Amino acid sequence: MVAPALAVNGSTKIMGVIGDPIAQVMTPTTINPIFAARGANIVCVPLHIDARELDTAWAGLKALRNLIGFGITLPHKQAALALCDSLDPLAKRVGAVNLVRREADGTFRGYQFDGKGFVRGLKAQGHTLSGSHCLMVGAGGAAIAIAFALAEEGAASLTIANRTRTKAEELADAVNRAMGRSFARAGDPRPTPGEIIINATSLGLSASDPLPIDASLVDETMLVAEVIAKPEVTPLLQAAHARGARVHSGIHMIRGQVDLIAAHIAEVQTDS
């Protein structure tokens, strides 16, 4: 059943999604029908904000009294951390924010749903994480959240490959300390049989991007997963499928968290 379209009026609350670029975001497409089905007078729209203008834009966002919150995508997830008035404990531990909500007192509080969304998306598609061995390319905002979520879900190990190796080492150390076990390590982007391969970088947003891993190393024993939702089938997933691997689109991460985000945003909706 298709949810009825929401009529936008003077009492409509706005949820933004900020990023640069922004054309790839799928959150408005997936969350607006949820708001409509809930009868919440909220509409989600994309907001293109350059990284160099985030501080200026943040002040403007706070001045919009009918802005109830906003999602955050690349490249703002870590920079937004210092701009929030307060942080949910998970966002503080992860060190990255993917949702900011205007609280009842008007302050901006940062939250983190990327890791939960990624895990929920995998499980919804029938994939098992407990006891799995994973290779993740990337160590930025979404990657940090996913690393913690994989550990909490009971994955056996995680190799983190990143262009700047020190960032991978720092992330591995942080996860190991938090989990109290030797779970993550920095390494090279070389998949081995049976692994879950995760692209947590922006490589794949453009068709001209290089692949984050050497596709010739992929085989039918692997699951290759994306955080990129648009295109739903990235060049990496195309190459992995051609090699016989199972593939998992980033759209499942969006769907895995969008209902959580919708409920969280709608909690503070007020009529004015």
TrEMBL record:
Amino-acid biosynthesis found in the keyword field: yes
MF annotations from Gene Ontology: NADP binding; shikimate 3-dehydrogenase (NADP+) activity
Domain of life: Bacteria
Keyword terms: Amino-acid biosynthesis, Aromatic amino acid biosynthesis, NADP, Oxidoreductase
EC code: 1.1.1.25
Reaction catalysis annotation: shikimate + NADP(+) = 3-dehydroshikimate + NADPH + H(+)
Principal EC category: oxidoreductase
Quinate/shikimate 5-dehydrogenase/glutamyl-tRNA reductase domain sequence ranges: 127-177
Pathway entry: Metabolic intermediate biosynthesis; chorismate biosynthesis; chorismate from D-erythrose 4-phosphate and phosphoenolpyruvate: step 4/7
GO biological process, one term: chorismate biosynthetic process
Shikimate dehydrogenase substrate binding N-terminal domain mapped to chain residues: 17-100
Cellular component, GO annotation: cytosol
Pfam families tied to this protein: Shikimate_DH, Shikimate_dh_N
Protein name: shikimate dehydrogenase (NADP(+))
Organism in which the protein naturally occurs: Nitratireductor indicus C115
